[in-house]
Design a protein that fits this description.
Blueprint: H1 32-36, H2 40-48, H3 53-61, H4 75-82, H5 89-187, H6 189-198, H7 202-218, H8 223-249, H9 256-269, H10 272-303, H11 315-319, H12 324-360, H13 370-407, H14 416-437, H15 442-473, H16 494-497, H17 506-511, H18 514-519, H19 523-526, H20 536-543, H21 558-569, H22 577-584, H23 598-602, H24 621-639, H25 644-667, H26 672-675, H27 682-694, E1 696-697, H28 710-714, E2 717-718, H29 737-764, H30 770-779, H31 788-799, H32 802-810, H33 825-845, H34 852-875, H35 882-902, H36 911-919, H37 925-934, H38 940-950, H39 957-969
């Protein structure tokens, strides 16, 4: 249908026709002309209307604008509303005619336009008809084609393409099924990973996880795989955490298979260096946790309650709560635990060394790329340096932990054996440190030195007080020991005879020969797989045995019987002069023989008053205790050399105090100064003064004005007092000779033991302090035998009545004129005194053996005193003739002859002293002057007597005064 719009009936420049006048024609194509044909009336009216185009245009232009508005315009309503209130038929008709003219003009204009476009319309209609024909033909062709395609589809294409499609679908589904199975396997991997981690198969777990990550990246286009990939990454991190935990387990108990798995796992992760950093961190943590748990366990056990305050303490503070009873077990367990950690580190290094050797020389089947080889070399170098550097770090941590434990407790009240065990354990730990990393363990040495000095001062002070108590309660009776007694038999000296001590300090190892050190296995070799080096001291302690006491005081053996039988056949000439001289001249300073040899026993004659008894050492319980103390001190010094000087200084004080006590008890006497016998040498006097000043505490009343330092007073000990049970004034016991012999000879025996230990002490003493040790031996130890003179002199001075002899000599008439053939009575009295003395010595020897040096000293003192009494008696003579001088010589020769039968002492002491004085009576004036200058051993009174009595009748008064003046001018040093 064709719609003719108003614009099609307008002219150029003319307004649009009103809608009421337009012809909107919707007609079929074939009926268009019929529809447009006006009625007869309309044609007539049209013909009647003017044909002038301009007039026609004017009519069209006269149409109201409102008619051009829109199709919905209601023209009837419009026209009706225009009607005036009063209608006029004529006006209405005129107006109607006007409207008709306007409609006729519009219709005519439309008809003209239609006629103008009719050829184009006809042509277009023909094209439409042709198109309709073509469409009908295409419809027929399509119908035929569809029919034929349906036949083809049913006959061939449907079946064949269906097969191909199914095959393609099958192929796609097969691939999809494989992917789904892989995805299912990946999603179930976490179960297998958990199982492998429980089995500690860390390399397998990491390998599986890495393969799963690789597979997940292949299927990352699936949405479910993205979640799986993140889950695998979390699982890998979890494996690393568990691997870190597994690595930490190797710090306490190293297992080769376990560590190999862990290292292989870190290699797969490419984190070998990270693993080594973590390992050192774990070792540090293991040391801290181990020591804390060990100490905490003992502290809580001893506390006896469930108080958790200890768990929150710092390790250093926790160590201060260890009790004395649990100190050693805790220290032992602490060292055992630290040993396990260090052994694990040692085995870790050993594993890496073996592993590096295997990697350095790969097998023939191995093929390693250059990059992998370079990375491997870098890793091995890093690991090696890290492990070597870690040795010092770990040992430093161990030292600091043990140091905190050592210093956390005051050990001054420990028992000696317990403290020795502590030193033994620390010494073994220092040996471990030296073998572990070559360290000298300065931290441990300093801490144990501090504790040792502190303990030793307290211990030594207590021992000195104990020694004072022993000395004040000592009755100086013999301690019955076996004849073959040796200090090596005592527990305290066992360490000197052992080939391998239960704990050998690093310093002792260094002192051993290189060859022996190479042959001995290190602790890490001995206890590589089992055992612990901190368990041996207990076993050693149980094995100690000691048997030094005799069943009675007079043990005999066959060797000594043989010796005494040989003695019976020996003559006096068999005694070596050198041996005699050793005991006669005590001022030589030579140390006495260290043991009684066969020759010494053979040399004993009547002077040795105990030939029927075994030659057992003379010592007391106190002496034995001092020797044991020395052994304990040396044992401590042997384990810990840094305090060697302090220990040796204390050892010297033990000897000093014992020597001073023996001197104070038995040797101190004011008569020494007037004796002029040189009983106390200058060296002995210096030693005694030194001991008194440095060791002996002065009573408050004696020196109230002096306030010494507190520390100085602490190091001093009060002077001991002799027990009231010891009586030294009884003449029947020779003024306590038995006790004096036991005391003095026990001191000499103690000095002999010190002499035997000198070389051992010298090896322990620091080089800078060795002069102290040498001075101690030369100035103190060697003076022990010199105490025999002053101690036995007191006995000799009282054993014989010298005053009676002087009275008897005063009654003799010396100015006789005839030479006498009979000696005076005083000689016989004096000899009887000596015989009585000899008998009393024999009585004493039944209880205490009197050694040859002692009897010699006693006889020497008695003879010297007798000879000097003789000279004093001769010096008291007022008148004397030459015959009187001859009588003096006769008396003295008689005395010597009888005396030589009583004693084997040769030569007779002071024989020349008497003879020279008697012969001086025959000197001239000039010779007498020279005699006075050369013989200062005589007193001024004795020399004056020579001048007055001998020369008085031969020289004038002036010459006598000259000689007496020479005597007064002589400065005689007291001897």
């Amino acid at each position: 249908m064709i719609r003719v719009r108003p614009s099609q009936v307008t002219r150029a420049g003319s307004p649009l026709l009103p809608s009421c006048l337009l012809l909107s024609i919707f007609i079929p194509v074939g009926l268009l002309t019929d529809t447009l044909a006006p009625s007869q009336e309309e044609l007539r009216e049209l013909r009647e209307q003017p044909i002038d185009p301009q007039a026609e245009q004017e009519i069209i232009d006269s149409i109201e604008e409102v008619y051009f508005s829109n199709d919905a315009f209601d023209m009837v309503q419009h026209e009706l509303e225009k009607l005036p209130p009063e209608l006029n038929l004529q006006e209405l008709e005129e107006y109607r005619d006007k409207l008709k003219r306007q409609q006729a003009a519009v219709s005519k204009k439309v008809a003209d336009l239609i006629l103008e476009k009719q050829p184009a319309y006809v042509k277009e209609l023909e094209r439409v008809t042709a198109l309709q024909t073509n469409l009908q033909l295409a419809a027929v062709i399509c119908t035929n084609a569809r029919r034929q395609l349906g036949v083809a589809k049913e006959g061939f294409t449907g079946a064949s393409l269906g097969l191909l499609a199914n095959q393609r679908r099958r192929h796609l589904l097969t691939g999809l099924l494989k992917s789904l199975r892989t995805i299912k396997t990946l999603q179930r991997t976490d179960v297998r990973l958990s199982e492998m981690l429980e089995e500690e198969d860390y390399p397998g777990a990491i390998q599986l996880c890495l393969e799963c990550q690789k597979a997940a990246s292949t299927f990352k286009h699936y949405s479910c795989i993205s979640e799986l990939n993140s889950k695998l990454q979390d699982t890998l991190e979890q494996i690393e955490e568990q691997l870190d935990v597994a690595l930490s387990k190797t710090c306490k108990h190293f297992d080769v298979a376990h560590y190999t798995k862990v290292q292989l796992a870190y290699t797969l992760l490419g984190k070998t260096q990270t693993a080594m950093d973590q390992l050192h961190m774990h070792f540090t943590q293991a040391i801290h946790n181990t020591v804390f748990q060990v100490v905490l366990g003992y502290v809580e056990l001893c506390a006896g309650n469930a108080d958790t305050k200890f768990q929150k303490m710092q390790y250093k503070d926790l160590c201060t709560h260890i009790t004395l009873d649990s100190y050693i077990p805790c220290l032992t367990d602490l060292c055992k635990a630290l040993w396990e950690v260090m052994l694990s580190y040692h085995r870790t290094m050993q594993w890496h060394e073996e592993h590096d050797n295997m990697e350095t020389s790969p097998g023939p089947g191995k093929c390693v790329s250059g990059t992998e080889l370079s990375d491997s070399v870098v890793d091995r170098s890093y690991v090696k340096k890290k492990l070597e550097h870690g040795l010092t770090r770990i040992w430093q941590d161990v030292q600091l932990k043990v140091k905190a434990y050592i210093l956390g407790t005051d050990m001054s009240n420990f028992k000696y054996d317990d403290f020795i065990v502590v030193l033994d354990v620390i010494s073994r730990l220092m040996q471990v440190g030296e073998e572990f990393c070559g360290s000298k363990s300065e931290v441990l040495q300093e801490s144990i030195k501090w504790q040792s000095v502190n303990y030793f001062k307290h211990y030594h002070r207590a021992r000195l007080e104990e020694l004072r108590m022993f000395l004040e309660n000592e009755t100086w009776e013999l301690c019955p020991v076996k004849s073959n007694f040796n200090i090596a038999q005592l527990h305290e000296f066992k360490f000197m005879g052992q080939c391998r001590s239960p704990s050998v300090s690093p310093s002792r190892q260094a002192a051993s020969s290189t060859g022996l050190a190479q042959e001995e296995l290190s602790l890490f070799q001995l206890y590589l797989l089992e055992g612990n080096p901190f368990e041996m001291h207990i076993e050693h302690k149980e094995e100690e045995t000691e048997d030094v006491l005799a069943s009675n005081g007079y043990e005999s053996d066959e060797l000594e019987k043989c010796v005494y039988q040989d003695y019976d056949n020996d003559s006096d000439s068999d005694v070596p002069e050198e041996l005699k001289q050793d005991y006669v001249d005590e001022q030589t300073g030579d140390a006495p023989l260290k043991s009684v040899s066969r020759e010494t026993i053979r040399s004993k004659k009547k002077s040795d008053y105990n030939l029927n008894k075994a030659n057992a050492p003379i010592l007391t319980n106190t002496t034995l205790n001092v020797i044991r103390l020395v052994g304990k001190y040396m044992q401590m010094m042997n384990i810990l050399k840094p305090i060697a000087f302090d220990v040796i200084h204390c050892v010297s004080q033990l000897f000093d105090y014992y020597l001073y006590a023996v001197y104070t008890f038995f040797g101190r006497n004011d008569m020494y100064e007037s004796s002029s016998l040189g009983l106390i040498s200058s060296r002995l006097r210096t030693t005694l003064n030194r001991i008194q000043e440095s060791l002996i505490e002065v009573a408050a009343g004696e020196n109230a004005g002096v306030h010494g330092a507190v520390e100085e007073r602490k190091e001093k000990v009060p002077s001991p007092h002799l027990s009231q049970l010891v009586v030294l004034t009884n003449s029947g016991t020779l003024y306590g000779l038995a006790q004096r012999v036991v005391a003095t000879e026990s001191l000499v025996f103690l000095a002999e033991q010190f002499e035997s230990l000198q070389s051992h002490l010298d090896t322990m003493m620091p080089a800078a302090k060795k002069p102290f040790l040498q001075q101690f031996y030369s100035q103190t130890v060697s003076t022990a035998s010199e105490l025999r003179k002053p101690i036995y002199w007191i006995v000799a001075a009282r054993a014989i009545d010298y005053e009676q002899m002087l009275l008897l000599m005063a009654g003799v008439k010396w100015d006789i004129r005839e030479i006498m053939s009979q000696h005076n009575v005083y000689v016989d009295v004096l000899l009887k005194e000596f015989e009585q003395f000899n008998k009393r010595l024999a009585d004493v020897s039944r209880h205490v053996r009197i050694p040859l040096p002692v009897s010699n000293v006693l006889w020497e003192h008695c003879i010297r005193l007798a000879n000097r009494t003789l000279v004093e008696g001769y010096a008291n003579v007022k008148k004397c003739s030459n015959e009187g001088r001859a009588l003096m010589q006769l008396d003295f020769q008689q005395f010597l002859m009888k005396l030589e039968k009583l004693t084997d002492l040769r030569p007779i002491p002071d024989k020349e002293f008497v003879e020279t004085y008697i012969k001086a009576y025959y000197l001239t004036e000039n010779d007498m002057e020279q005699f006075i200058k050369n013989h200062r051993e005589y007193s001024m009174k004795q020399l004056a007597n020579l001048v007055n009595v001998c020369l008085g009748s031969h020289i004038n008064k002036k010459a006598r005064q000259k000689l007496l003046a020479a005597i007064d001018d002589i400065d005689r040093p007291k001897r």
